[in-house]
Amino acid sequence: MSNAGTRFGPEPFHYDPFDAMTDDELDAELDELVRREPPSVTISIRMPADLLGRTKRAAAAGGVPYQTLIKRLVDAGVSRLEQRAKR
Predict the structure, then answer these.
(1) Which of 6, 79, 82, 85 might form a disulfide with 16, Cβ 3.0–4.6 angstroms?
(2) Where are the domains of the chain?
(3) Is 53 helix (H, G, I), strand (E, B) or coil?
């Protein structure tokens, strides 16, 4: 996917990458995205409001949804713990 398509917001990442696709191409792309994404479960977590705000700002600066950033940070932290346990 490229950064081509109809822009719909002020930020460089606000664009519709699917704009030029046919319906069949879009269906195939969405099927692939669903296949690649591992199944997930919904959780509830309490965190300080300040930490959530900082996380949302960091996510916005990186152009990713804040929940995606949280998942990436948890994954990276757990991976580090697993590596330490192997030593």
Answers:
(1) 6
(2) 1-37, 45-87
(3) helix
Mind listing the pLDDT tens digit for each residue in 16-66?
777 778 889 888 888 887 777 677 899 999 999 999 999 999 999 998 999
For residues 31 and 33, give the distance between their C-alpha atoms in angstroms, rounded to a whole number. Answer: 5
> What pTM was estimated for this model as a whole?
0.57
The per-residue pLDDT for range 65-80, each reduced to its tens digit, is 999 999 999 999 999 9
How is residue 27 written in tokens?
A: 């269906």
Kindly report the CA angle at 20 between 18 and 22, in degrees rounded to 5? 85
Number of helices (H), then strands (E), in the chain? 3, 2
Residue 83 host element (H or E): helix 66-86
Residues ≥6 apart with Cβ < 8 Å to 37: none
